[in-house]
Predict the 3D structure of the following.
Amino acid sequence: AAGVIQSPRHLIKEKRETATLKCYPIPRHDTVYWYQQGPGQDPQFLISFYEKMQSDKGSIPDRFSAQQFSDYHSELNMSSLELGDSALYFCASSYWTDSTDTQYFGPGTRLTVL
Amino acid sequence: EDQVTQSPEALRLQEGESSSLNCSYTVSGLRGLFWYRQDPGKGPEFLFTLYSAGEEKEKERLKATLTKKESFLHITAPKPEDSATYLCAVHQTGNQFYFGTGTSLTVIP
């Protein structure tokens, strides 16, 4: 079965550079979530989209922005990168079925800021 | 203050030794409580979503329950392949997700 695809899987950037992370949800999933997970930490919710519209917003820095496109893929744009942005970035997609919200995570993008 | 607390932080079980993991929350307004399993370096694997007190869901050796203040993940007769970190997260009516810090489970053969 198709899973959530994230690209790139690994990314190395310098401070103050920009980065774009991409997420391709499972077909027919209508919601996409972005999370940031630092080393040894629990995931932090960044932002989510439902049917291409921003639905929920968490602890996403102003330097970051995200959008969901007509084909439902989503991109997380990160500017003025800081050392503290080094983390695993997960995308998840979900759909509502049988009265439950079933969420599937991608493999993550490991961002290293030097 | 909205927060989610999981206990214990770490748990070692013998194979076949049943136990429960706890997720307590003080989040105002619950839209859903999620349970995930996470292996090192991988994305969380969705297990369950619970929506209202009294709700229960089961999947193989796992059973999740929910009250107004906490959720339990019961593991019956665990196997070594159940070893992982188990995360819970609360989706709040104010549109935030709050994760707990996880319980690291090790099942010894």
